[in-house]
Each structure stands twice: as C-alpha cells, then as structure tokens.
Design goal:
globular; 304 residues; homodimer; alpha+beta
C-alpha cells in the first residue's frame, strides 16, 4: 500500500494478522564474495526469511531489507544484490517494500519477511500428534554438498553449488500443506534431524524416520553413495519444508506436490515416545547420526 | 498471537494492513560500548524503528530483533540489551515477538517495528498543503549536544548525554496527530531542516519556519546561547515528530500535546513556493544554516 520512500512501509494484511520473520546474513559468516555473486547473496538472504513465513503455512507478502556495507562496495554490487532480493521475493509472491542502509566494515544484510495466513491458523512446531505422517518437500543435502565442494576447493558439481548459493525453497508447499491440515511444520535450515527435533520437542512426541525414504538430492547420492543418507539427514541450508499431517491425508500428498510444484516424500511417522527423532535403517536398526560427510564430498568420487 | 520460538511471529493487524520499518544499529557507527550501556543500546535501537511507525500515524504493535555479536560478548550484556529493547518497546505499547541471532565481529542490531493504523490512512511525507501549519513534538538539539559532549570528552550535561544515549520519541504524538488530521509527518532523525526538506520535496511545497519558535532543548540553549537555534535546526537523532496540519486545527494543538504527554510547538507554515525549507529570523531574514555547532559545545561555556 505504501512502498519505499516514506518513514515506513504499509502492507496489506487481509487476515487481520501478519506473520513476520527476520534473518541476518553476514559476509564471511553466511557468504563469501569470492563464491557468491551479489545476485546470489540477494537470493539467499531473501530465501531464508521467505522460507520462515512459508513454514507457518502463510503466503509471503513483503520484504524489508536493511543493508550495511563498506563505502568501497561497488554500486553495481548493491544493484545486483537488489535484483536477487527482488527476484526471489517475486518467486514467493512478495515485493521489496522498504529498507535501510548504513555503513559497516563487512556486508551485512537483515531481511524481514511479512506474510498472510489467508484466514488459516498458523502451523506451529508444537502441533504434531502421534499417528501423523511426516513429509518433506524437496530433496535434501544439495546445499551442504555444494558448500563442502566450495570449501574444499575441488571441482564442483554445478547443480550442488547452485543449490548452496541460490537456495530455492518450495514456498507454495507451506500454504498448501496448511490447507491440507498440516499439524506442524518447519523449514529445514540446520539439518532435517535437528529441525525435526525442534518439532518433536515442541510437540512432545517421537518421530521415526525411514532412512530409505529420505529424499537425497540426486547429485549428492551419486557422489556420496552409502554416506549420502546420513549426510542428507544432517545437512543444513536446504530451506526445504518438513511437516506432519494426519494419516488420513496421505492420499492427498501427490496432489499437494503437483499444486506446489515440488517433490514431496513421506519419510516417517509420529510416535508417542521416546520424544525426539529416530532414523531406522532397512533392518529396523537405529542409524548412528553425526554431522558431517564433508570429508567424503571433498575427496574425489570413490570407485568401487 | 505467536511469539518467540517458532519459525515466525504472528502479530495482530486489526486494520487489515500492517505498518513496517527496519533500522540497523552498528557498533562503532551508531554507538560505542564505552559510552552506551547495553540497556542504552537496546533503548536506542528500539526507539529508531518505533519512531518510524509513529511518524506514519500508527501505533506500534511489535518488534523483531536480529542481533549479531562476537562470541566474546558477555551474556549479561545481551541480557541487558534485551531489557532495553523490551522497555522501550513497552513504552511504545509494543512487545518483542521474534528475532534471530548470528555471530559477527562487531555488535550489529537490526530492529523491525510493526504497527497498526487503527483504520486511519497513513500520514505520508507527501500530503502537506500550502496554508497548513507546521508543528513539532518535543524539544530539539539535546541528542546532538550530548553526542558532541561525549565526542569532545568534556564534562557533560547529564540530561543531554542521556537524551543522546536513550532517545525518548513522543510515540503517542504520531497517532494523535493523525487523529487530528495531520497531512504529512516525519520523525526528526537527520535534523529538522533536512527532514522537513524531505516532506517539502515529497509534497512539492515550501516550508517557512520562524527561528524564534524552534523548541530548542533547555540545556542546549543555556550552553549554546546564540548558536542554539542554528544548532537545533540541523541536529540529528532527536527522533521527535514533525507534522503539518490544516490551520483550522491550530486551536486543538494544546489538547494534542496533553493527550500525547509531550510539548508541542507551532514552528511555521506551509507555502506554495519556493519548494524547500526556509528559516526566517526575527527580522524576516533567511537564517544561514550549516550543520555543526559542535565546536561551541565542546568548548567551556562562554561568559559575556
């Protein structure tokens, strides 16, 4: 309703409430200018906050961006950053409506995303119930695999590097899952097991995942083989969406995937106890989980 | 509706729209830890964004705070920062509902404020009309005077230093002015002449201020004497509110001041041209304006 150029922006909130999330992105911590173009940084900064809105089951409406940067930052870099922010916002159905600029020694971005629930109740982390099925939208592990390759300085698989530099969360899956009756939802930023652990703790339930059903990104599976699933279970920065929904809705999941334009995989079930996340292998044995897998990615592909 | 602990916050937006503003505060640029306590930094970071919402004529509803800091930052410092943020938010009628933390070499804060228009239209910078009167809520110059004293390392006047470290915008004056029919409004962050210049440009009008009517902060006037008014006209970081309103409402200004709990001064009139801000002295001559006055503050009070 009111965009950039006044003291504040004014954004429509037709449901009578507004969903809001903020995320910071700092040069040297969350990105490097050697690896990421300004456009990439804009896409990633926007995606992180936009995914938080989708994870509430809301549609994104607007972004506010605060940028602090050194005086030496080329104007062209800032312009391309703005392009990346606007492009990713548009992919989520939102516009960049306001901002602030300041000077700082390193490029620092703060992105606030606003969203609307379309008169639905928000999908929290605390609503999972025993008997619900657990589903994840999109493949896992590609972003962390891309980062591992960049870090190791090895010849990278372009699809994996792109997934790390320009994450593409399945925004539409958030509101679609909410419409279907999702009971809990989260975006996978720190790794599936860790993030579902937040849902399990908030809902006071157990979550039993089937290792064989984890949707590992294809390029990641080819490279990591047997290590691919443990890697994908703990890999961060995918910004995919994981949610729980009543078992009676399982047959509607393929339609949800089509409507949201993403893959959707049923990966497990909510149990009463023990509270927390357990991953079982094909023989029903708990999979030992550890963060990592980076070493294997950094090494050349193994021949057997 | 949903506070800290989920992917996003959910905040009520009863008017069907939300007012949003973001501001960044960076150590070494906007504050120094030698001068400001953590509580001070919290108050100032909150005040900057909260004032932007008030300047639209809206009431504040919520703050989202992103904090990036070095790992060496004492936990106590962060806790006191949160107290300052919460206290200033509460003074404006809002709560801290969400946030993000990250690591960075210097303390970096990004505060997003959300507000509600209570079904009024937003008061923009572009609505001033020739014939309107110009009013300002609160005194001017105290913050910049406090900063000048801190910078010069001279024995400081406590009231001025406090005004710089913990600005106290007259939040209620924003919605009260909107109720009265304010045609344009802005918060005074960069200095009255510069900020009213934005209003004049956006409204394509002239603004004629009477130098003798500028409400210079008392401690500032005592110290600066003849230089006090030029100083206050260009002094930044007061976060007071300046607005224009139809001349027919002039008699209602004292009531507005009482309701908002702040001083309110009629300082000038909106003209058709020339576009921009002119300040006239007691003899009707334009006052030469320059940023500064710091030198006089840094020196000991002059005796005549």
């Amino acid at each position: 309703l009111v965009g950039i150029g006044d003291d504040s922006a004014v954004v429509t909130a037709p449901s009578g409430s507004v969903v809001a999330a903020v995320d910071m992105l700092i040069e040297g911590r969350h990105f490097r200018r050697e690896w990421s173009s300004a456009y990439d940084v804009g896409v990633k900064a926007a995606a992180r906050s936009l995914a938080d809105i989708a994870a509430m089951g809301a549609v994104n409406t607007a972004l506010l961006v605060a940028l602090a940067a050194p005086g030496t930052l080329p104007a062209r870099w800032a312009a391309e950053l703005a392009e990346g922010l606007a492009a990713e916002a548009a992919r989520a159905g939102a516009g960049v409506v306001g901002g602030d600029t300041a000077s700082a020694d390193v490029v620092t971005l703060s992105v606030t995303a606003l969203g609307d629930l379309q008169h639905r109740t928000p999908v929290l982390r605390s609503g999972a119930r025993p008997g619900d099925v657990i589903a994840v939208a999109g493949p896992l592990g590609h972003s962390a695999a891309g980062l591992a390759m960049l870090s190791a300085g090895i010849q990278a698989v372009p699809a994996l590097v792109a997934a790390h530099l320009r994450p593409a969360p399945p925004y539409d899956a958030g509101p679609e899952a909410a419409r279907l009756g999702a009971t809990a939802m989260i975006d996978v930023s720190d790794g599936l097991v860790q993030d579902l652990g937040h849902v399990a703790a908030a809902s006071r339930v157990g979550m039993r995942l089937a290792a064989g059903r984890i949707p590992v990104a294809r390029a990641c599976r080819m490279r990591l083989r047997a290590e691919a699933t443990p890697f994908a279970l703990t890999a961060g920065e995918d910004y995919e969406l994981a949610f729980t929904v009543g078992a009676e809705h399982v047959t509607s999941l393929p339609r949800l995937a089509r409507r949201a334009g993403c893959s959707l995989t049923r990966i497990g079930i909510v149990t009463r106890r023990p509270v927390g996340v357990t991953v079982l292998d094909a023989n029903g044995r708990p999979l030992p989980l550890r963060a990592g897998g980076f070493d294997h990615l950094a090494a050349p592909p193994r021949r057997r």
